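Render this sequence as a predicted structure.
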Amino acid sequence: MIQSAVTLNLIDSMHQGPWIYWHELEASFKKASDLGFDAVELFTQSGHQVDSDYILELLERYHLKIAAVGTGAGKVLQGLTLTDTNPEIRRSAIEYISEMIAFGAKFGAPAIIGSMQGNVSANRPREEAFAWLAEGLLELQNRAKAAGVFLIYEPLNRYESNLMNTLEAGSTFLKEHQLDGIRLLADLFHMNIEEENLAESLSSNAPFIGHVHFADSNRRPMGFGHTDMRPIAETLHQIGYSGYVSAEAFPYPNSDEAATQTIREFKKYFR
């Protein structure tokens, strides 16, 4: 059965971005639970920002799971990517993501590689960046396998990355490099920019999809933009998707109303 999730950013220095809940761990868990969400997707500064035992205690108290953990703070706060031309930065990126893999694995949750994939640098060959990316992802998927979880790779839109922008590009890359421990994140906001047909893309890349980000065309909660959600939901049911549909969206008009709108839309299509 498809599960619902809502995002929570716990980084005090950040105040803007596509996360529904912000900064308050227990209060956000309680709100998510009261609304009927199955899980929370966490965005933290590091794998040590919050005591794992405390999170486990809260998960039990509020009958929630951790859907996934984000790694974007490695890029936003430290400037780390897997395709940086500096090998020391690439190594630091791998170690940071490995820390987040270990953190997520404590809750049976995968880590997401989005912005930390980086970009092809100006005046450098694309093949170079893709080779570095493949090398880093191979090491990271093996660490994820050893921790008992899979790894998630997120194709981003062209304004955020010039590597892979569609599910097809992502699945082709995973097949070519035999990255069988990695699944794709189908982010509906990014897909609205890059995909010709969202439902068809989900269908043709079904074996590779491991996570879905639930946001409308304007990155507000679903229902506040012009995404036609019905064929997307029908396709997810048809392909037998049983992972999370997680609201990585702006807290519009505020966190509580955004969460309420999200769970309302989720139930409309998946319950």
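Summary. Residues 126-147 form the longest helix (22 residues). Residues 3-270 form a domain with the TIM Barrel fold (CATH 3.20.20.150).
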